[in-house]
Specification:
Strand content: 15-25%
Number of strands: 8
Order of helices and strands: EHEEHEHHEHEEHEH
CATH architecture of the largest domain: 2-Layer Sandwich
Number of domains: 2
Oligomer: single chain
Largest sheet: 4 strands, antiparallel
CATH topology of the largest domain: Alpha-Beta Plaits
Structural class: alpha+beta
Strand order of the largest sheet: 2-3-1-4
Helix content: 25-40%
């Protein structure tokens, strides 16, 4: 089965440094095949015979912690799940050149409570948009993600779950690399 793992918070501001070739080697040592990395932010596409995503997540997180001596949250989705995420986008078609960095997806470690989902809506200030679906948050930040209050850390805090965010361009590239 083809998987995409998305690591949270590596190679940001000189913290939690992990070189992608080292990460690729680690995944291969774990028995994964056809391992491909994409950019330095911790995106890895791989094949595995295991169908238990929770088990894969634990295996990868523990291996990273053993090798690098720090914890890195990992989110895993199949390439079919990524395809569904792209197809079911709530904001209509996305021009990757014009809006590829203004539309984002936040991957959540678990489904947040309905109360928290309801509460967070008030923080999406027009023209921003925020849609929570199961374990994903779709964001539209037309003035730039860096200027938005809807940062990854903010979403984690308000939703009460671990999260990691990728822009739409990166999400599309991850899907392309996984097919």
């Amino acid at each position: 089965m083809k998987y995409i793992s998305i690591l949270r918070g590596i190679n940001v501001s000189g913290r939690k440094k992990i070189k992608m070739d080292g990460l690729k080697s680690l995944y291969e040592l774990l028995g994964f095949q056809n391992v491909v990395t994409y950019i330095q932010s911790g995106n890895i596409i791989f094949d595995a015979t295991v169908k238990n995503k929770a088990g894969l997540k634990t295996k990868i997180e523990e291996a990273i912690e053993r090798k690098y001596k720090f914890h890195v949250p990992v989110e895993i989705r199949t390439n079919r799940e990524i395809e569904d995420i792209i197809k079911n986008r709530p904001f209509g078609p996305v021009d990757l050149t014009e809006n590829g960095t203004k539309v984002l997806l936040t991957f959540l470690s678990s489904k947040p409570s309905e109360d928290r989902v309801s509460d967070i809506q008030k923080y999406a200030v027009t023209p921003e948009k925020l849609v929570v679906r199961e374990k994903e948050v779709y964001l539209y930040c037309p003035n730039g993600y860096g200027k938005s209050k809807l940062s990854n850390t903010f979403l984690e805090h308000k939703l009460g779950v671990e999260a990691t965010t990728r822009n739409w361009k990166s999400l599309h590239k991850l899907y392309e690399l996984s097919v």
